[in-house]
Each structure stands twice: as C-alpha cells, then as structure tokens.
Model the fold of this input.
Amino acid sequence: MFHDRVREGHKDMTLADQNWVRVGKVPFGKGVFARQDIPKGTIVGYVTGRVIDDPNYGTSYCIDIGGSMSLEPHAPFRYLNHCCTPNSQLCVQDVIYADGTPAPAEVSIEAISEISKGSELTIDYKWSAVGAIKCLCGSSKCRGWIVAEEELAKLPNSKKRNTKQVC
Done:
C-alpha cells in the first residue's frame, strides 16, 4: 500500500523550507550540501516521500519508520550519504491524525554538529550486519563497513579482516 506523504501544520521555519540545502555531485553519485552555515541542533528539514506499508520492502534509499512502514524519500534528503562520524541525524517522530489514529511517522534531519556552508550533510546509516557493505567515508574513525557500531561484532570473520584496508 502506498501513501503520498504531505507535511502540513508546521509553523517553525526550517533551513530546507528556506532552500538552504542543495543536491550536488560527489565522487560516487549525489549528496546534500549546506547552502549556508548550519548551527548544531538545527532541524535542517523534513524528509518527504512515499510511505510504503510492506514489511518486505527495501531499497538503497528507504528509511524504516516503524512496523511494516518505510519512507522512500524525495530529494533533497534522498541523497544523504553515510559517514561513520556524521554531522546530521535522522529523527523519527510518531504522528497521530486528528481523529486519534496513528499516522506514518515524520522524519526530520537534525544537525548534530556545526555544518559549514558548502559542507556535505551526512548521517550514520547504522545498518545491520546482514546488510553491511564496505565503507568509503574517509573518516579517521571509519568502521570499515556501513554497519551500526553495535553490529560490528556480528560481521563474519571474512569481512572483519578487511576493515582497515577500506578507509
């Protein structure tokens, strides 16, 4: 089942509402970049897209929003890339319709450190060990794999051996 996600009723002005982020090129595709300095703690914007109610659904871009629901994001936040030391994070909030029934969760992007104009916004994908792939983020604290830190111990030994060669 598909639902178009429409954000209504937000009175706070976000950076994305003011078009202060842009999509740009990175060596391996696209990324999201700051059009101006973004202070730590700022809600940069809200992720809009298509809500899919299917427990087996999954793509490279989808965001788990709880239960059987996923959010297939639209630009610009569709292009948020992973980093083991991110400067942003996804914030998932439960939403209730006016009649009291649960609605699909709302996803926002929050700056967790100062982000300078022109810098790429990144998040930690925190994937499970089952879906881990090699990480090329270049961070000095790179885990070597796109995987949640607590999932590192679950990686097969064959993957663990190559960790230091990746970054």
User: Anything to note?
Assistant: Residues 1-13, 161-167 have pLDDT under 50 and may be disordered. Residues 157-161 form the longest helix (5 residues). The CA atoms of residues 9 and 155 lie 43 Å apart.
